[in-house]
Specification:
single chain, Creatine Amidinohydrolase, three-stranded antiparallel β-sheet, 29% helix, globular, binds 2-amino-4-trifluoromethylsulfanyl-butyric acid, binds cobalt (II) ion
Length: 262
């Protein structure tokens, strides 16, 4: 990621990002019923690609710096950037993060969720619940005048208090017509540090939280990142826009909107 300046989007552009974000959220909802024992990650990928095209959009990951598939599927000890594969079959008790990024009219909607395949172990359930809460606590820090470091601090405080660790090697990012741009959003750090958050900024918050060590290694395929100790890792991601008085989650799914208004 080059150290470009942070671009503030106009309300017209945020409208475009809203459309892309909505399609990304709908895509995750559409894929959810496929997450069952016996299904391959390639089948999920192919259905995502088909649905994306049917909706007049493009899959940003496909061909991005040579990434070979349309979505990322990261199972159990895989931290991120897992590559869908016909031989990789979901089994009961797995956790799988599905990360989608459709491009709608040039703008990217980037979101992911960790799903349970069948019945999770208590540890897996706890890790996934904590990771979702980490993302939401990070988002809750976003408002004009706060600092980017406040986001990571809130995430790290909660994750570590629950006995888990925060991945350092991958961060959230500015997103618009460009998939990955400034600012970088670390999911660890210190309050009061980093650039000031301003209305019109659009970026992702996508904490990867590990059961054991935060350290990762990348496999020989140059993409798949796994935990060094092979323990579990979970992730959630939303694309958010900074408004005049707070934050708008551009990739909110219906299930989350219902929880919020309840
Ligand atoms: N969607 C991922 C992110 O959240 C990026 C995937 S890049 C790919 O930033 F090339 F692996 F697809
Ligand atoms: Co992202
Ligand atoms: Co993503």
């Amino acid at each position: 990621m080059a150290p470009e300046n942070i671009v503030l989007l106009s309300s017209r552009e945020i409208g475009k990002m809203r459309q892309a974000g909505r399609l990304a959220a709908e895509l995750l909802d559409y894929l959810e019923p496929m997450v069952k024992p016996g299904v391959s990650t390639l089948e999920i990928n192919d259905e995502a690609e088909r649905w994306t095209q049917e909706h007049g959009a493009k899959s940003a990951p496909l061909g991005y710096h040579g990434f070979p598939k349309s979505i990322c599927t990261s199972i159990n000890e895989v931290v991120c950037h897992g590559i869908p594969n016909a031989k990789q079959i979901l089994k009961d008790g797995d956790i799988i993060n599905i990360d989608v990024t459709p491009i709608v009219d040039g703008y990217h909607g980037d979101t992911s969720k960790t799903f349970f395949v069948g019945t999770p172990s208590p540890k897996a359930k706890q890790l996934v619940d904590v990771t979702r809460e980490c993302m939401m606590r990070g988002i809750a820090e976003v408002k004009p005048g706060a600092r980017i470091g406040d986001i990571g601090a809130a995430i790290q405080e909660y994750a570590e208090a629950q006995g888990f660790s925060v991945v350092r090697d991958f961060v959230g990012h500015g997103v618009s017509k460009i998939f990955h741009t400034a600012p970088q959003i670390p999911h660890y750090g210190n309050r009061g540090r980093g650039k000031r958050i301003r209305p019109g900024m659009v970026f992702t918050i996508e904490p990867m939280i590990n059961e054991g060590t935060w350290e990762v290694k990348v496999l020989a395929d140059k993409w798949t990142a796994i935990t060094k100790d092979r323990k579990l890792s979970a992730q959630f991601e939303h694309t958010v826009a900074v408004t005049e008085d707070g934050v708008e989650i551009l990739t909110l799914r219906e299930e989350e909107a219902l929880v919020k208004s309840a």
